[in-house]
Design goal:
Radius of gyration: 27 Å
Largest sheet: 6 strands, parallel
CATH superfamily of one domain: SGNH hydrolase
CATH topology of one domain: Rossmann fold
Order of helices and strands: HHEEEHHEHEHHHHHEHHEHHHE
Distance between the termini: 83 Å
CATH architecture of one domain: 3-Layer(aba) Sandwich
CATH class of one domain: Alpha Beta
Structural class: alpha/beta
Number of helices: 15
Helix content: 40-55%
């Protein structure tokens, strides 16, 4: 039978082992410093929006600023390119600046969405946010509508915009108008959800500490160098990165297909999940969420059939979660079938409503907001 070591002897051995390890690591660190060995961190920059927009945001001269939670947001004071003497207000949105707390008996509405909600190509007074406020007041209801739309936004960004900016304004009603086009695009890097998680993580104390240790401890420089060399060195890393980017750009050309091998900014599954998360947040704040199925020209849907699945997802989430939904897409279809001009309802592209189109959206939203018993506007196509 083998005798076990006395407790004191074991503790002594462990202490000697620990001291030996610390001594060896200290000597290695000292040797690397004497040799002035350095290996800088190699971090492939995350593509936030796209190369052109990222550059403008970095310069701080455009319509948008980088934001770690929303990825980007309107820059206060930035001129609206198509607005006559109009700028983004101090709060960071288009239209009138509002007080944090609405006056008593004032219905406060926040509209979330992409460039169609922001009002690309139309004056603010022609946007559906402004027209909605007018219609609510004309119906005898004192109302304030805050236009929370942002060019290029997806539902994941809209969710964070509500959380970061508009939850504090305690809106009675939140309108969510997503899924028209941006969500289906190739992510070109990480999905929007993962980008937001990544950017928020950069602000954590743990990330800052690990970056500081990596920069200051030469042993970690050496470990990083060994890992890089084991994978072929900088040249191989650059080759793999370029190959990935070429594949992503090629895939983007076919992102409108239903069956598609790439990764979208927001997948159909995550699109529905984000709408549900937004509903829970809004209702947790005591508000009511209203969804909008946004319109597009018929050719856009023929060329990119997956877009109709995003429209269907809006209607499905609304039915499952018992939410009101303004079917603007269906309303546009009916207006055109009744003899209206498709071109008259859009500006000079496939996605963005004209002033007449915005007014049609505002009409449907006003009827829903004023009558909570109405489950939906239109039945969709």
């Amino acid at each position: 039978m083998v005798a076990s070591s006395p407790p004191g002897s074991l503790a002594k051995k462990l202490t000697i082992a620990a001291v030996s390890v610390v001594l060896v690591l200290s000597l290695a660190e000292a040797g690397l410093r004497l040799a002035d060995f350095r290996h800088k961190r190699i971090e492939v920059p995350l593509l936030i929006w796209n190369p052109a927009e990222d550059k403008v945001m970095e310069e701080g001269s455009g319509l948008h600023l980088f934001d770690p939670g929303q990825l980007w947001r309107p820059r206060p004071g930035a001129p609206i390119p198509w607005g006559e003497d109009e700028v983004v207000n101090e709060g960071g949105w288009r239209g009138p600046l509002r007080e944090p707390v609405a006056a008593e008996d004032t219905l406060r509405v926040v509209t979330l969405g992409d460039s169609s909600t922001f009002g690309l190509g139309v004056a603010y007074g022609e946007s559906y946010s402004a027209r909605l406020e007018e219609r609510l007041r004309a119906a005898g209801r004192e109302a304030q509508v805050i236009d929370g739309g942002v060019v290029g936004f997806t539902v994941r960004q809209g969710l964070e915009r509500y959380r970061d900016t508009f939850s504090a304004y305690r809106p009675d009603v939140v309108v969510a108008a997503f899924g028209a086009v941006n969500d289906h695009y190739s992510c070109l890097d990480l999905s929007d959800r993962r980008k937001i998680e990544h950017e928020r993580a950069q602000l954590s104390w743990g990330k800052r500490l690990s970056d500081w240790l990596r920069d200051e401890v030469r042993l970690l420089h050496a470990v990083s160098w060994l890992q890089l060399e084991a994978h072929g060195g900088k040249e191989r890393l650059a080759e793999l990165w370029l190959a990935t980017k070429r594949r992503e750009h090629e895939l983007m050309k076919s992102s409108g297909r239903v069956e598609w091998p790439g990764e979208r900014r927001v997948s159909l599954e995550d699109f529905s999940a984000a709408l549900t998360e937004l509903k829970d947040l809004v209702e947790g704040d005591g508000g009511r969420l209203v969804l909008v199925s946004m319109p597009r020209k018929a050719r856009a849907e023929r060329d990119r059939p997956v877009l109709t699945l995003y429209s269907r997802a809006v209607m499905t989430v609304a039915a499952r979660e018992e939410l009101q939904v303004a079917d603007a897409r269906g309303a546009f279809h009916r207006a055109i079938a009744g003899g209206g001009s498709e071109d008259a309802l859009f500006v000079n592209d496939f996605w963005h409503p004209s002033a007449a189109g915005h007014d049609l959206i505002a009409e449907g939203l006003a009827s829903l907001i004023l009558d909570e018993s109405v489950p939906r506007w239109g039945s969709g196509d």
